[in-house]
Amino acid sequence: MNVKKLHPVMLAGTGSDVGKSVLATALCRIFLQDGYHPAPFKAQNMALNSYATPEGLEIGRAQAVQAEAAGIPCHTDMNPLLLKPQSDHTSQVVLNGVPIGNRDAYDYFREAGREELRREVCAAFDRLSRRYNPIVLEGAGSISELNLRNHDLVNMPMARHADADVLLVGDIDRGGVFASVYGSIALQTPEDKKRIKGIIINKFRGDLRLFEEGRKMLENLCGIPVLGVVPYYDGIHIEEEDSVDLAAKSMRAERGKINVAVVLLRHLSNFTDFNVLERDPRVHLFYTNNTDDLLKSDIIILPGSKSTLSDLCELRRNGTAAAIIRAHREGATVLGVCGGYQMMGVEICDPLHVEGNVERLPGLGLLPVTTTMTGVKVTRQVVCDDGSGYEIHMGETRPLDAAPSPLLHLNDGTEDGYYVDEHTMGTYVHGILDNPPFIEKLLSPFKEKTDQTVQAFDYKAFKNEQYDELADYVRKHLDINKLYKILRAYD
Q1: Which residues 6+ apart lie within 8 Å of 440 measured at CB?
Q2: Which of 87, 180, 274, 302 is paired with 48 by a 20 to 30 Å CA distance?
């Protein structure tokens, strides 16, 4: 299809969590459906939940999801700068997919090296824009943080570099949408105000007709068209960027299903590992650190952690570690993924103080392995007989006075993880639970609890259906024709 080239478009926000990421995902899918070749871009992202590109480099999970919606492989140019929080004040800085060290937040936002970072993220955008059109940019937080304006890499300065048309997203569900939208626009420089070409009101609840007058008032007040009022949606499932809703998924065991408990770690990361199991009709998956619930579970999964030693200390302190060991002794399967795999071993050593001042901690002792933390991060995509996934981890794990017994044999000739028996195993591979063959192995000891006629869940097909449903939903509530007129209006 011969389609006219479009301006880049940025989804900016009146604040954090207004729905920019999901709307960017929707636009990526809409543009793909309409014959374009779109790509997502977020200059700087802050998230624990990351992903490995085909080249074995690290980006934010949200941009990987958006790339999937756009029908293209993810690349570090889509998220050249990733901040992974280490504590309330420090983050690991990942530039072009490679960690370059930990930075204090105060120093990061004020140091001279900001201009070097600005050059890097702008270069990434330039490379991406030569390959794809349109580029769907996503801002971060609020566009009106005046104290950070001179150091901003991701909002209006990036829109200026990209020559992007900006759509301002306001969250009506949290209240004060008139003030937040009007104030966000009023606080922009005259040059940046001209870039804001449309307003999207997101997360509306109730009868849309009740906001018709408000829509007109907002347009008159701001002098910018409201392109759409998008209702709060339910029943469309797009992978989330952060684990803000995991507490709401904390439930107790159920009868008639295989009960899978994911241990609710304080620094849990890559929680999207469990999306497929959560939707498998044979499984009831829940997040918990309640010792009674763990003892009633068929399968316990120790997930990844951004602070493995800290979380291991907490598991010992609150009795969760003892409950996991007892549940395993009484017949439960225990699977460790990444940091959880490290915790299942005999010990974790940190002689270089990669994670802190603790140099050694005993593990749960369920696997005969030892882990040594190193300053080198492993990031790569992998393929094995049971499917595919990706690794993102610090540390090296090896057998301790035991013969190797790998869980997975990778296609590149290497091995991963450790397998004791069908009830005791660990792996570094995130996403292994997206693969039906591995799920069948994990569930096989408990098959008698389920309906044998139920088919395994096809997650790939499900995700594609969800992207299409999201695109249809946003089309219904957004004036796409007016958006195209904006993006085609070259001066």
Answers
A1: 456
A2: 180
Q: Write down the domain spans for the chain.
A: 9-238+465-488, 257-449
Is 340:360 a contact under the CB 8 Å cutoff? no
Kindly provide the residue ranges of all beta strands, DSSP E only, lying in 30-185, ordered along the sequence. Answer: 39-41, 44-46, 50-52, 58-60, 81-85, 90-95, 98-104, 135-138, 165-171
Domain 257-449 belongs in CATH node 3.30.450.20: no
With tokens 């316990």, the residue in question is 300
CA dist 45 and 60 (Å) reads 7
- Let me know: does 468 contact 426? Beta carbons within 8 Å: no
Q: Is the peptide bond before 134 cis (omega within 30 degrees of 0)?
A: yes
pLDDT tens sequence across 36-50: 999 999 999 988 788
| 254-269 residue pLDDT tens | 777 899 999 999 889 8
Decide if 9-238+465-488 and 257-449 have a common fold. Answer: yes
- Strand 39-41 with 135-138, pairing: parallel
**Catalytic residue numbers, as ranges:** 338, 430
* pTM for the full predicted model: 0.85
Q: Which residues pair with 85 in a beta bridge?
A: 91
Residue 434 near residue 261 (C-beta atoms within 8 A): no
Q: Which residue has the tokens 């302190």?
A: 317
pLDDT at 447 over 90: no
